[in-house]
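Changelog entry: the Single-stranded-DNA-specific exonuclease RecJ record was regenerated in this release. Current contents:
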Amino acid sequence: MKFNMAQFDWQIRPEFNRDASESILNNNETTFSSTFLRLCSIRGITSTEELIEKTNQKPQLYHDPFLLFEMDKTIDRIQTAIEEFEPILIYGDYDADGITSTLIMYETLETIGANVHYYLPNRLTDGYGPNKARWSELVDEYDIRLIITVDNGVAGFEAVDAMNDIGVDCIITDHHELQSELPNAYSIIHPKHPSGQYPFPELSGAGVALKVVSTLLGEVPTEAVELAAIGTVADMVSLTDENRTIVLSGLTLIKDSMRVGLQLLLQNEKVNLDNLTSETIGFIIGPRLNAVGRLGDPTPGLELLKTLDISEAESLLEIVNEKNRERKSITENITREIENRMGQYDSIPNIIIEADKDWPAGVLGIAASRLVKKYQRPAIVFQYIEEKKQYKGSSRSVSKINIFEELVKQNEYLTYFGGHSQAAGLTIDEENWEDFKQSIHKSFEHYTELLNEPEPIVIDMPLSVNEMTIDFINEVNLLGPFGMDNPKPQFMVKDAHINTIRFIGADKNHVKLALSQTDSKVELQAIGFGKAEQAEGLENGSVISVVGELDINEWNGNCLPQLMLKDMGVNGSQWLDYRSSKIHKDLLIIDKALYLFSHQPIADYMSKQLNGAAVVLYENASEVNLAQYNNLIVMEPPIQLQQLKEIVNTQAWSKVYLGSFVQESKYMAGIPSREEFVDLYKYIFAKQEFMYKTEFENITKALNIHPVKLKGMFLMFLEAEFVTIKNGRLEFNKEATNNKIDLPHLKTFIQYENEYKSEALLNYQPLDAIKDYFEGN
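Regenerated structure tokens:
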């Protein structure tokens, strides 16, 4: 389903199973609304039992940890190390999942008396995963006898072999993709281990760590569950099955957390603990923990969650927040710089590839994601590392293109790469840089048509404004936590009237709407962050369709349904009102636009200001290939409305800009009346002849006729042969007294009347009435 001005291709979910749907909708065992039951059936819930399970906010699904391959061997080795007070190293990762995984393992081992140390690698100096040199340093420093990795390790062949050579055992706990071979570690705990029988393969690194410590303790430690919930949501793994239990349990525990750093963070961000959701982790907690590791040493993030000292927590929170502010600033600067570079191209390439030595590698993935969202193109953003003469980059892709497969095709130019269909990391030596760019741009040439199609957005179901109630939203939230494999439902409201529209924010780049539908007094609030540009041209009274997620807006003790806008669109073209006494400068810089004029001299004059843009008279539009233009600019009203109607209906224009400038307003002058024709005829008859220009002003005053109208009347008299004008001298035709002319049937009168009607509609009617005239049935 495609709407004009919409950024996405709207795809409504089909009904999952009609028989199952009827069973759900007709069941009498629950108190859910029929609207919610309809949503559940659409999302594939096929029985009352499944409905109760999916809406249970206190699930207890927790699989036997001994189903993980080598769990018993792992626990025996850890217990031996504890008993013999062997120095143990927990080696984590620099993201939120790695930080929480490390802390889960460290706190548990410390609590039961282990001689334990931890280390979080620095992204910039240690890189990802086991680092042989760093391991060797830590082994020497602490006399380590056992290394336990968390959230990494399945690709650490070299480091593990080096430890084996010096008698240090390595236990790997990880959840990342397995290769065909595994390191020669003492044991490997992995939910996807080919020799294991674990029923749920989608645990996060923190989830795997939680399984290990739960087995070690013989019970699930509550203080570790809140950490596992943070790691699970932040790492964007599936929020189904066991992960749903971990996250919902963790959210409950976070509300009453004893972690002073976590309490301070939530308090500082003014989080309402009664409304804590997975989005709180995804948009507030996770990004701050990730920010520290993106720009260097992630240890302050772990220490913030670990400390029991309030003053230390305050200092650590300031460090974490400062790193997050720095991360935002750097990302915005990179994105802005690349956007400026894009503005220098004739067209946006099918894949965006940009590099700079001053762009930190840790934020490149975020910048690439923003570019994908803005341009609907895959993007790879690189940092050029001068000392290594290498380009280190992060890629993100649109849903329709598997970036990993595309990079496989470029393998001959890559020093390293890894990832999945929508994201990958890669390194390229400088000597291969230009060849790589040329090759991958060529490889993407065949994607032009595909990339010009908008990305899909999946809509769960259309709803009326009346159905969007607080009770319904509360029902919807029972299906949470929302995230990977359980996306938050998207709803569509079709043909809503904008009662009010406001542009908000410091830069006015957000839009807030009050929407209603015909025959309903209910009003829905909708807000679109960063949607101001898309909402250009909308006004009170406009009819639009919108897609978004439902939320509850709490303000001053009041609760109202609110739609968080993901997209909006209109049927037909979007008409934008630029009518004014002066030409708006923005009309002169519109891409892929066709400019329409009625008069050749005006078209010629404006062509010089439009810098080679497409300029055409209405009467010549049929000679132009209109398909090459997306936007239509009505610079002057047509002589006949049908001329513009034919052009509008030739194709689906993205936008129609209504300038409709008039130098001589026939609408303001009015249609000549019979009495005015008689008065003018008598005046000319009495004078017989005169200099036209000299007498013109006298006639307008004497007969009180508008100059534009009078000019038109003279043209009509010329056509009727009542007068002749030669060398500026007007003479009455003495034979005219014998002529009986029906003036309203003259071509000049009809043209004047048509121009009057055209101006009356295009210059003086509201925009929705104009659009309805040209596009309505």
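The domain at 65-321 is CATH 3.90.1640.30 (inorganic pyrophosphatase (n-terminal core)).
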